[in-house]
Write a structure and sequence with these properties.
By secondary structure, the protein is mainly alpha-helical. The chain has 13 helices and 6 strands. Helices cover 55% and strands 8% of the residues. The protein is globular, with a radius of gyration of 21 Å.
Length: 302
Amino acid sequence: MALQSSAVKFRRILAHFPQELSLAFAYGSGVFQQAGASAVETGNNMLDFVFAVDDSVTWHMMNLLKNRNHYSFLKYFGPKPISNVQNYGAGIYYNTLVPCNGRVKILTQNENVKLQAALTSNLKSAVTAAFLMLPESFSEEDLYMQIAGLSYCGDFRMIIGEDKSKVMNIVKPNMLHFQKLYSNILEDCPQVVYKHQQGKLEIDKSPEGQFAQLMALPRTLQQQITFLMDPPGKNRDVEEILLQVAHDPDCGLVVHQGISGIVRSSSLIQSAKTTLTAGIKKSVTYSMKKMYKMSKGWMRKT
């Protein structure tokens, strides 16, 4: 009944927005239980949603007509400039503290084959990157901790504004959710021995195995690793550099640095955009809430 009532609540919120969505999902502490938080705290937390749309200009145009008060001063410039601002950083138009009915589950998804392929590819890429940063033998929890931590690598908000135990708090109460997402990928992966009953995994850490994993990484991450490893003037190709990294005892560290560089850049730009997309008042209020939440995390440890 709890799951059903949550789904109904989420769909009621979605009804307030234009329905031309390729994908919509709710995530975060308002949806999934996190370690150290009571069910009451989870229920009272702000709900976070991500909307994916095919045409952001058209969607913002319709949402301006429907929910003009959700926007900052950018509403006076119209949908095209709003969409242009969205393109910077992580490519997301971020808004916070939007009242709706007084206050990760997939809520709606159309039959977009390209989108579905991108979602599946994203899951596989996360697993591959995590493999490269883990030892030869590890637990399922270790894997999911590594995966959940990918988006926080290099994020300056983990220094100021986020609970340092955030990744652990996400993973521990939600192991079943992670298993549901990743078990098929792990079972089909030829480079890993997945001992499902024991919750243990073993991965091929030979240079050949690591090279295959490096070649399977997203192109953006491969290029970032190339940038880190290629001294000025040498201009070696990506495959040659990845082969060198595959033989490097610090291969996992290089991958971590590559991911951190990508996340650091987008997180800084995305955060700077918040004052434009959410407005100064809401940005400050949201930041204060984050700081309070972080201080509560510190107090729980002491």
